[in-house]
Structures are given as structure tokens and as C-alpha cells.
Fold Mannosyltransferase MptB.
Amino acid sequence: MTQTSGDATRRSTSRPTSRPTSTNAAAGSDEQVNHLGTWLSQGRSWLALFWADLRLAWAFTYVRHGVWGMLLVAVAAMTPAFLPPDLWVLDRFGLQWLEDGASLILSTGLILGGVALLLHAWLRLRPTPDRPTAPTSAWVLWSLPILLAPPLFSRDAYSYAAQGLIVDRGMDPYTTAPISVPGAFADNVDSMWLFTAAPYGPLALQMQHAVVDATFGNAYVAAVAMRLPALLAVAVLAIVLPKLAARLGRSEAAARWLGVLNPLVLLHLVGGAHNDAVMIALVAVGLLLALDRHIVWASLTIAAAAGFKQTAIFALIAVAALATRQVWGAGHTFIQYLRESAKVGLVSFLGFAGLTMLSGLGWGWLHNLSVPMQLRSMLAPPTFLGTIGEFVLAQLGAEGAAANAVPFLQSIGAVVAVLGIGYLYLVVAPKHPIGASTGAFALFVVCGPVVQPWYVLPVLALLGATSASRRWVQAAVWLTIGLVGYSAFDVALANGAPVVGVVIVGYALYRLMRSRTDLVDAPLGPEPAAAGGSPAVAGARAQAE
């Protein structure tokens, strides 16, 4: 009897325990289903908003003009300016006729006409106090025509593909050149870079490795697919840059227009598939995190950006200054500023070192930083002035001095850059953190030995989000116009049609000068509706100027 009673007691006490367990499991399952339903509902909402934004963007006449311009570029892209010699795509689709004769002249004219149409559309969409710009998704519409086009305005993407294959085969990309992977990958690389190892950060190389793996080792497809990370990066930039501008009390429309819809973004970051796109997007994210007082995450994000392109470290100037303000207030001392700078620098360095270790590629890029200097870049002021000096001295018979003219002026440029960036860090950054970082990026471009059109995009992106100065905006617009014209004329030269380039670029500039009051000189806006005259917004603006 006792045993039976005990068993009954144990059975009676065990039953209530089993029921809640089953109920809890069912509740947990229901909660997971509810979460999944919420995510799906949010996803549908985001897709609906995105589709509505696309339709709104398409309603803008000049957005459609930009689409037609990019379509012209895509249609005519199978030319020697964009393709490696003897590429299989030309044979496969019977496009050899595009490589010479009247068809080459025609395709060159179509590319230049398309670029001019895109530039004109962008200028016409300039936001003013009484006219908004196009929605953010306009950049998506402008990108669609060139998604499957070959890499545009540069053959760097073919080098990226070869470097990705080098990593895939377990070789050291910092000591191994593309010539070491003979075949289609090496054949597509520009001869200038065929014997040079990679100068890029470890994250860029692992990204290239992932793209090569995903494209099953097809050299041309891998080069085109390098556009996918660039597209994702521009998408991030399109989201973050207006938020950064709003956080600083600036116009979101102006930031979107100058930093996202800019023709240089479409032609070089998306079209050329450059690593710089990921770096710029991560820099914008890092600065937004710093403004929101997430200094550690901001420092780590900038470290990740430097893993794609090392110039991202200039953004640490702003992060350090913002960290000092947050800890010590606006009245901090110089020692406190240096102390917080050291903390930010240490966190970022440890983050970069950790990412480097995880990548398995090491620090070999330090030895390859001079690789881009093999190119004599006439866009770089020190190199341009040195080349003029070299010519003059050679004409005067001073051969020894002529040989040293370019290196000498490049050295002067380096000294000016170091002193200028030091001044920005020590004097300007405590008062204007993000303005100081923008200036550091600009000094690096102006004083550097090599300049490519896409090198200026970090400056334009940050300038659009931080500055409302009419003078600076005018300078940015003219810089964009000049570099777009340079890129277009470079295509004409590469295709052996300089006369076509002179005619089309010259005519476009003539029309532009006639309409410069509306297209270039108009004030940028509109200002944020919530800005008003609040002290918070005034303080945010002080950080940006």
C-alpha cells in the first residue's frame, strides 16, 4: 500500500511538470513563427517602399535621361578602351567589327554621348532651395544598364580577378604578380600591372578571392562580378550618407546628389568596380557610429575600411576628435585629446591586426605601397608640374636635373601632405572633426604622386554630407565635370579617336558654360526642414564646417 501510494504521489507530482514543458515548447515555436512572420512582413514593406521609390525616380525626366545615357555606354562598351586584347567574348558573340574602322568611331561617339547625357542629367537634378533632387533609388536605375557591361574606364577589375586567383591557389599576393597565373586571368591584366604584386589591404584580396570562387574560375566573368561588392557598397552609402548629413544638420538631398548620384560614382565605382567603393561606404558608416557615440565600433569599422584601402585611416582623425568631445567635452585639453587619440588608434590598430590575422595574408602590402607610383599620373599636381619642369630642363640641356624633376616635386608634395594633415589633426580637428578628415582626404589627393578620378570620391561624399558652403560646392561640381570630361576623353584616346573626343567633350563644355548659372552656380539645398535655428543643429553644423 505504501509503495503504491508513493508511486501515485510521484506520478501525480510529475504530471504538472510535463504539461508546462510542452506548453513552453509550443509557445517558443509560436514565438519563432511570429518573429519570422514579422521579418517577412517587414521585408515585404521594404520591397514595396523600394519599388515605390523606383517608380518615383523614374517619373523624373532627367533620371530617364541618365538611364538612356548609361544605356548608350553599355551598348558601346565592347571597345578596346574597356576590353583586353583578343578577349573570347568578341569571338563568341561576333563583335570583332566593333574593334576598328567606322564602328569603333561610332561606339566611341556613343560612349562619350552617353557620358555627356548622364552628366547633364545629374546637373539638372541639382537640389536647390525650391527644387528637390531625385529619390535615392535613381542611382539603381542608372546602374542597371551597365550591370553586365565589361569593367568601364579602367582595367583594374581584371587585376582584382588575377589577385583573387593567386589567393585561391595559396600563393602570397604581396610577393606574387599576375604573371604567375598564366592563362586567361593573366592575359586580361593590363601590361603595366602584369609584373607587380598587390598593394591592397587583406580584406580587399579576400573579397576578390571570394568573387573568383563564386564565378567558377572564369576570368572575364570574375572581373565583371567585381561590380557586385561595389553595388552593395554604393547601396550602403546611399542609406548612410543622407543620415550622416541629417545628423550634422545638413541637407540630405544635397548629400545624396553630390555623394551618391554623382556621375563619378556611377562611371568609376559601379562601372569600374573599384575597391574604393567599399572603403568609402565603411568610412561613412564609421563616422555615423562615431557621431552616435559608438567610438569603439567606429574605430573597428574604419579598421575594416583600411583593410580594403589604406587611406581610410584619415577618417580616424574625426573619430579621435569626436571621442575626445564625448569624454571631456568641448573644453578639453590638448593632452586629453592626445590620450583619446591614442585609444582610438590602438583600438583601430588591434582591429586591423585581428582582421589581417583572420585573412591569413599578412602585412606584405607595406612593401607594395609604391606600386601605383609606376604610373605617371598627369592628374596629380606634383607629377604634372614635375613633368613640365622635366621638359623645360631637358630643352635647356640640364639632363641630370631633368631626370630628378618629377621625383623632387613628388617629394615636396609628400612633405606638404604630411605637414598639412598634421595641422588638420592638431589644430582643425578639435573644432571641426569631420571637416578635418575631409581635408586630409583632399590633401592626400592634391599632394599625392598618383591621382585617378575615383580617388576624389571620399572627398565629394563627405563634402556633400558636411558642407553647405557655396564656394566648396561649386569647386566640387567643377571638379566632377572636369574628371568626367577627362574620363570621356581618355576613352577617345584609347580608341584612337581623339578628334571625336575633342568635338564631343568641347561641345558639352560649351553648352555647360552657357547654362552654368542654373547648373553649377545655383545654391545647394534644400536645407533640412527640422533644422530651424536650434542650438543642437548649430552645434552639429560646427562639427562639419
The radius of gyration is 27 Å.
